[in-house]
Every structure is written in C-alpha cells, then in structure tokens.
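lol ok so funny story. i was supposed to be doing the assay writeup but got distracted and ended up predicting the structure for this chain instead. priorities right. anyway since i did it might as well share w the group, maybe its usefull for someone
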Amino acid sequence: MFNEESSNWSAFVAGAFIGAGVALLLAPQSGSELRSSLRDYASRAKDELDEATEQGRAAWDTAVERGQEYVEGGKQALRNAGRAAREFVDETAQTAEKAAAEATSRRG
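and the output, tada:
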C-alpha cells in the first residue's frame, strides 16, 4: 500500500527532477547541448515515472489480494459461527424434548 514514506520519496524525486530541469534551462549551453540535456532529462523522468507506476500497481495488487483474504476469512468465520449456532439450537431443542418427555413420564 501507499504509505507516507513512499509519498515522501516520490515528492523528493519529483522535486529533484524539477530542480534539474530549471538548472538545465538556466545554464548557458548551445541549442544542441540544451536539446540533448532535455532529452536525457525527459528519458530519466519517464523511467522514474514508469518505476513509480509499477510500484503503485504492485501496492494496489497487494492491497486487493489482502482484502480478498480478509473477506474470505470473514466468510469462513461467519460459516463457522452459523454452524455452531445451529448445533447449539439443535442440542438445546433435544435437551428440551428430553426434559419434556421425562416430565410427562413422571406425571403419568
């Protein structure tokens, strides 16, 4: 999942790239050197964005997987609770029937 640490890291990387881009624009260079620098800068920025996207996708997949596990665990717990409740009701009904039968046989 996304956490504060990854958000801080993303902000740092974005700030670093923005700062590098401003530095490239303000540095005295020829047109071809500037274009080459900007191309390299854009390539690195794209690589960083691709990596951040992949990390985000992996975090999302992990979150979905965990969510599915929790839901399945909850369903299983409900099934077990329902089964236990049915058993309790059945046992209580049997006990009540036996008690009623014993009471009837004592009177009779």
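The helical segments are 4-26, 31-107. The chain has a mean pLDDT of 85.
back to the writeup now i swear
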